[in-house]
Amino acid sequence: MLINFRIFLLTTLFLQANANHFTFDASTQMSSAENWLHEEIPCIGDEIRFDSSMPVVAFMDHNVNVESIYLPKNGIIVFTDNGIDLGGDSNWQCAKDHLKQPEQKFYTSEDRHDTSFYNPKNWIPDKRFFLHMNQVPCEYDDVTVSSMSSAQIYLDLPVKVNRFRYYKRYKYMATQGKKRLWVTLLVEYGDQWDGGTERWKRKQNEHKQKI
């Protein structure tokens, strides 16, 4: 029993001594091809649609010039601090073919778990380690969400970190037809997230009690 306690104590001290800082880096930028179905970004004059099967976070980081945008029922659209020009010059979109009808392009993730907290691809650590357990934040690590973007984090288990820093930003949020101001961060709790504020608060309180 004493040996096990010593091993546990040494492991804890080692983890504390090697505490790291992580920046969440899963892109939600609309100008990034990886956020579009089959990596097909909308050309000028196309239609933008959002995945209706899950909550959506989209960061409009540049001007958008399309025929129409069908807003998500559950989700957040974040704008840059300086705003954007809908219908203005857009250098990230392909040119419009006047002979073609507008095509529907879908802003969606191939897999919800692409935004998982436990996916090492979503984190930029200050210090890089080989083991998977060290490639995602633990309870001794600090976490930052970039101030120049937005974030969508998928959680299927409670997590604990030493310090969590995020930034507030004005945006449009659609939740069953209502408009709200919300923080940039959207956290999904497994398959139980339903876009409801009360459910979100209950889950948050449950996790605080467990930690």
UniProtKB/TrEMBL annotation:
Lineage: Eukaryota, Metazoa, Ecdysozoa, Nematoda, Chromadorea
Example GO BP: protein transport
InterPro entries on file: AMN
Alphabetized Pfam families for the sequence: Amnionless
Organism from which the protein derives: Caenorhabditis briggsae
Signal sequence bounds: 1-19
Protein name from the UniProt record: Protein amnionless
Topology relative to the membrane: Single-pass type I membrane protein
Subcellular location: Cell membrane
